[in-house]
Specification:
By secondary structure, the protein is α+β, with helices and mostly antiparallel strands. It has two domains: 97 residues, Arc Repressor Mutant, subunit A, CATH 1.10.10; 35 residues, no CATH class. It contains six helices and five strands; from the N terminus they run ααβααββαββα. The strands form two sheets. The chain has a three-stranded antiparallel beta sheet. A two-stranded antiparallel ribbon has the order 4-5. A hairpin with an 8-residue loop joins strand 2 and strand 3. The longest helix is centred in the middle third of the chain and has 18 residues. 16% of the residues are buried.
């Protein structure tokens, strides 16, 4: 869970620096919450080809990560002694990318949001579930979800089907 001040700083960065949108898109394409992102990995992203030459992209990427570090999302480490230039995340990479994406973030979300507030020590894990052939659901649950909580959640979900709809037994 992001610290509120970090969250607000990232949203401000998203709104104030439109040239960084491509970098946020590149981060959003990542599948895992890595703790370290090498600069060269970000520069390989197809989303960044519109930003000019390789040296222009590198300068823009360094500025992007400097701004993220200023926002409190992590620390930029310039490569020395054979180590690559990298960004070390203090905030979850995927949460930062989601917040900063042009169609994401709390000010632009549409529809109901089931997550109200998780305790600071509770980390959330995003789950993807193929419900139907053409319908994939994504939801977040605490990493330390208990059996009792899972049962309560399952019971709540069982109350949702509309009358007259297909059941899992008939399908």
């Amino acid at each position: 869970m992001l610290d509120p001040s970090v969250r607000d700083a990232i949203i401000s960065l998203r709104d104030a620096e439109p040239q960084f949108i491509e970098f946020f898109k590149a981060l959003a394409s990542r599948q895992k919450n890595r703790s370290v992102t090498p600069l060269d990995k970000v520069l390989e992203s197809a989303e960044l080809t519109s930003l000019g030459s390789e040296s222009q992209r590198r300068r823009a990427a360094l500025e992007f990560f400097r701004q993220l570090a200023s926002a409190g999302a992590g620390e930029l480490r310039i490569g020395r002694r054979g180590k690559a230039t990298r960004f070390i995340w203090k905030a979850p990479l995927l949460e930062v990318a989601r917040l900063a994406s042009p169609d994401g973030g709390p000010e632009r979300e549409e529809g109901p949001n089931l997550v109200t507030q998780a305790p600071e020590e509770s980390l959330l894990v995003t789950h993807t579930y193929l419900l139907r052939k053409n319908l994939t659901l994504k939801f977040q649950l605490p990493i330390d979800l208990t059996a009792s909580e899972a049962e309560r959640l399952a019971a709540m979900i069982r109350t949702l089907p509309l009358e007259g709809g297909e059941t899992g037994e008939d399908a």
